[in-house]
Design a protein that fits this description.
Blueprint (H helix, E strand, L loop, with lengths): L1 E7 L2 E6 L10 E10 L2 H9 L1 E2 L2 E2 L9 E9 L11 E4 L2 E2 L5 H4 L10 E2 L13 E5 L3 E3 L6 H20 L6 E5 L3 H12 L4 E6 L2 H9 L4 E4 L5 H8 L4 E6 L4 H10 E9 L12 H6 L3 E4 L7 H10 L8 E6 L3 H10 L6 E5 L1
Parallel strand pairs: 12-13, 12-15, 13-14, 15-16, 16-17, 18-19
Antiparallel strand pairs: 1-2, 3-6, 3-10, 3-19, 4-5, 6-7, 7-11, 8-9
Helix pairs in contact: 3-4, 3-9, 6-7
């Protein structure tokens, strides 16, 4: 099969690899239809690592995908060849303590598509995944929507983790795909007011056009002063989606006493810091988000029912052979890109 593999920093090439095979009775052989380019994929493309996860070249990235079932193992009951599926890229062991307490996303033996040390990615023609990672969407969603459900599931999970007994006003700092996923998920939770920020003008406008009550550029105004003028009592929950020290600091300033800072963005630096005086005096709860946990089905139900719509995020589409152009576009934030989708 053909695959796009990383061969160095900012380098990607088409390669010919062996076709994957079914080995376990619950395996499903999938033909990839669409892959979304994620910010974490771009981290590996541009730097060769995320924290302790370091690329050993050549390496295949990609984890947001939809696919068509080609073949199933002997124990697979819910799928047949021809089914279109959304793929949950995380495979937990189901046996460790974390899994037993409902924390499959922090499973001690978790494997995740396109993560060094765990498994190759889906930027290729075929992959094999267990049945439990494959969610049938035939007749409900198209291939692009099914692939977009992966980042949306993170937004659904993050919003749930940030909910408070009083949760009427939130701020989302960073208006890329995950920030926008949080916005759509928050609307589905009937959050009354959503403030959004970014430093890219096109994303500021995009957030406003697609559902934010307030959207502003942190490059052009003091967003803390601006939002606090409108909300002098502070914000109930802040979703940090940029992975920057500056947005972490803004989040702490914006929160009301007793509020929640929900960290979703992945900083490129190994350490970040907080003013202990401010977070202690305001009794701020800080929550880290590790991908998503059992929200794929909920995300798909919200999309198929029409209660949530994320179609607007797929701003650019590329054929498989032009995957590098897709990565370069996303890495450079060019042409107003929100989400680049690679179609097979």
């Amino acid at each position: 099969m053909k695959a796009q593999v990383l061969t160095g920093i900012n380098e990607m090439e088409m390669a010919e690899l062996a076709d994957p095979q079914i080995h376990r009775p619950d395996d499903v052989l999938l033909k990839i239809e669409v892959v979304g380019v994620c910010g974490s994929d771009v981290h590996y493309y541009e730097t060769g690592r995320i924290g302790s996860q370091i690329v050993d070249y050549p390496y295949r990235v990609g984890h947001e995908c939809s696919a068509t079932v080609v073949e199933t193992g002997s124990d697979v009951k819910s799928l047949v060849p021809g089914d279109l599926v959304a793929v949950d890229p995380a495979v937990s062991c189901g046996n460790c303590y974390q899994c037993s307490i409902g924390r499959g996303n922090t499973c001690r033996d978790l494997t995740f598509l396109g993560t060094p040390g765990q498994g190759d990615g889906c930027l290729c023609e075929y992959i094999v995944m267990p049945e439990r990672s494959c969610f049938k969407v035939s007749g409900k969603l198209n291939a692009v929507q099914a692939a977009l459900s992966e980042p949306f599931a993170i937004g659904v999970y993050a919003v749930k983790q940030g909910l408070l007994p009083i949760n009427e006003k939130i701020a989302i700092l960073g208006s890329g795909p995950i920030g926008l996923s949080c916005m759509v998920a928050a609307r589905a939770e009937n959050i009354k007011k959503i403030y959004m920020t970014d430093i890219i003008d096109e994303r500021v406008a995009f957030a406003k056009a697609h559902g934010a009550d307030y959207s502003a550029s942190a490059e052009e105004i003091d967003i803390v002063e601006s939002i606090k003028t409108l909300e002098p009592d502070g914000i109930d929950a802040v979703y940090e989606c940029a992975g920057e020290q500056s947005t972490l600091d803004q989040g702490i300033e914006l929160l009301r006493p007793g509020g929640k800072l929900v960290i979703i963005g992945i900083p490129r630096q190994s350490r970040v810091s907080f003013s202990i005086d401010k977070i202690r005096r305001k009794e701020i709860t800080i929550v880290n988000i590790r991908r998503q946990n059992e929200t794929t089905r909920q995300a798909l139900e919200l999309l198929s029912s029409g209660k949530a719509n994320i179609d607007f995020m797929a701003t650019h589409k590329f054929p498989f052979k032009k995957s590098k152009q897709a990565f370069d576009l996303v890495a450079r934030y060019e042409d107003g890109v929100i989400k680049a989708m690679i179609e097979f």
